[in-house]
Amino acid sequence: MGERVIALTDWRRATPTLPATRIAATGLLADALGRPLHDLRISVTDRCNFRCSYCMPKEIFDTRYPFLPQSSLLSFEEITRLARLFAGHGVRKLRLTGGEPLLRKHLEGLVEMLAGLRDIDGQPLDLTLTTNGSLLARKAAALKAAGLRRVTVSLDALDDSVFQAMNDVGFPVADVLAGIDAALDAGLGPLKVNMVVKRGVNDAEIVPMARYMRDRYGAAVTLRFIEYMDVGATNGWRMDDVLPSADVLARLRAEWALEAAEPTTTGETAERWRYADGRGEIGLISSVTQAFCRDCNRARLSTEGQLFLCLFGSQGHDLRSLLRGGAEDADIASAIAHIWGRRDDRYSELRGSNAAPRDGGQRVEMHYIGG
Ligand code: SF4
Predict the structure, then answer these.
(1) Among 182, 209, 185, which Cα is nearest to 195's?
(2) What does the alpha-carbon distance between residue 263 and residue 162 come to, in Å, rounded to a whole number?
(3) pLDDT in tens, 51-62
(4) Is the dihedral of CA 7, 12, 15, 16 positive or negative?
(5) Which of 73, 75, 102, 214 is the most buried (most CB within 10 A)?
(6) Pairing relation of β-strands 150-154 and 93-97?
(7) Which residues' Cβ are closer than 6 Å to ligand 1?
(8) Greater pLDDT, 370 or 153
(9) What integer pLDDT is reported at residue 37 of this predicted model?
(10) The ligand 1 atom nearest the CA atom of 348
(11) Domain spans in the chain, listed from the N-terminal domain onward
């Protein structure tokens, strides 16, 4: 029986120090590299009903794994209060993630609360969600009615044997596709489908996935190919298993004419390519071979209120202790400004270089802060 790997859960957490003088929320908060705070990704659960090997390998996240007790999760009221304070600093987009966010009970209630928030210009926030699609067919209409705008669905293969090997719980493709259809019917489009590409595992699915999405949905669905990343410390990442986006693009161009398209917003993670025949577009998310840290405007809130400044971070900032410690809004907003203002994370740009973070901290697991 080999060594049992325990995924450390107590990522180093710092209780934020309140700056001596309050920092007012101006809506124009920027980090140490001049990057604004625009997107907040909120993990609402650390649990998932899949065991994707690149995120939650089954041999580690098994029945003995110490998932977080309900009491340590941020409540919907706490999440909404924090989201409101982040909006005061300039956040315009909220993405609900997990684990699998649709496992969180009564999630529609949270969506409704967040849909009531406004950005600094008085506009509703762009409220989105990333899901593995397993529960989407059942929940799409209620999420839309509660105020959700769009969803992104993770789907790594069309071939059931490949997909079930990757999700490692035998979950069928057909049910995820039914979720995509239900989301489009409910008006949660245009929809994005994310496919993590692992060389030798599902790369043969690149062209079949593209063909299926463009033939069935055209411009209503954008398929995005994600380079396999060294997130966390449990997925056994090797560079050999990465299929660079340039190779993905070459395979697609062997089938279809594709034209480069301009980014829709600053900080967009995907490089856009449009089908010349008008059947929509694809995206390439190349964190390993073409890092995009220079415009990274994303903050991540863990399920229990830890603020992470980078997907590959190992240090969280414990906002929950402020929430539950009786801190005033202005103090919490000030702490957020203080933390973000000192942010200089750019892990992907530094990956493998001597300048790469050597803080010895174990990188946070993706299921804890969302992708
Ligand atoms: S590696 Fe970190 S800083 Fe770079 S794009 Fe990803 S989350 Fe942003």
Answers:
(1) 209
(2) 32
(3) 999 999 999 999
(4) negative
(5) 102
(6) unpaired
(7) 287, 292-293, 296, 298, 310-312, 345-348
(8) 153
(9) 97
(10) 1
(11) 9-14+38-318+346-369
